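Now for one protein, fold included:
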Amino acid sequence: MGTKNTNLYIHLSKIPKKDFKKFEDFLLSPFFKTKKWQIELWQILKEDYPSFNKKSKQEIWTQSSHFNQKAFNNQRINEYFAEMNKMVQQFLQMLTLSKDESFQQQLVLNTATQFDLPKWYTSNALKEDQNFENISFFKQEDYQRIIKRYNEILRNPHIGKHFIHSNISKLYDEAVNHYFIIEKLQQALPIISRNKRQGGETNVHLLDETLSYIRTQNIKHPLIELYAKLIHLYENWDLQKYKDTISLYFSIVQYLSQTEQFALILHFSNLIAKRISIDSTDLHQLQFSLFKNGVANGVFQHPARITVRSFGNICNSAAIAQQSEWTFQFIQTHLQYLPLHQQAASEALAKARVAFHTQQFDTAANILLSTKSKDFLIMLNIRTMAVRCLLYNFIKNKNNLRTLYAEIHAFLRYIQRSNKVNAERKRSYSNMLRIAKKIAKICSDNKVNVKKKTELKQQIQQKEIMVARDWMLKILDEV
């Protein structure tokens, strides 16, 4: 009997019978590109357990469907035996090491390092008392990488089975689970936001099931909690819960990508778009804090994330918060991200807002009246702001009434002649301009007629649609 045969039989005899199934699994592993003859050779040899040497090489050759179609070849079967012997030795080595607990842990740890997991894993993952409910979470862009690594480790023949039973595996399971929940909540939020604005149904496939799963499984993940709270706020508005959700956002913002921060800032803004008014000091401060943090984190330093509307909202929020210096700095650093043809008018409007909210009504009006733009939406904002400045200036200083009337009439003609605005919006702006003229008329009298003032206030409240309704009521109260 050849040496190669003897070595194979000796090594096979060291495999405990209870581990035969493990050895078969080992042979069938896709990582070894197992050939059909190897499985057949094992099936033939294991019949002669424990000695494995009862059959001659010719008998084995004849018994195998892989070999028996060809003439017996002693060199070829010796090569097969040698290859099988190497695999048996590998399996025996793994079997020995698998019983060494310290080796298992080191193997898992080395694999974690090899696959570039966050340092949090390698320092904490092997602790038996680790509280997985308080698992550290990753930036969103890490999740795809984690899923990929997770699958690679599971398929690794030297680590897969040990990995499944390790604490580090629990962390991976948590991360993968979180990834899919976050994906669903991220998908749902813009749909809910759009449907709320347009008055449509907010039914999102599997959203109710996902939210129920989060509650019943008591999932402790700050980003999941944040998205779930935002969804709840869209359905059930509550100012205190809105403030609490913003506090949660600030506690985890350092872990979020710029894309995530941008999307979340938009959702926070959308939630208060129809609730914020000139007197909503808390909401204005909260909105500015979100914008300020986003700017500091570079969120808006990208043409796709800064539009005329968002640029104006940020400047307006900062101006209301009396952050003049910050606003001018923002204009200097972020104006460049707007299209070139929108930059001059957007800058003028932003500076006029700062002047307006610092009671410099003349300055604001002069900036606005000297600014023109071919962009219709920008001109709507400029002319609306100009009317507000002129009206406030007249109420406070009793001058420039003719200029105010001229601007109101010019704005009315501009609105009525435009084909870029629908009938409802025309009516909304027209109502605002006519009310502004009536307020100016009341203020032009030496003594304010209380009856006319009360009637006008009722008119404002009863108007079905009207731009700047809250502001008009506020200014009327100050007359």
In short: The chain has 24 helices and no strands. Confidence is low (pLDDT under 50) at residues 106-138.
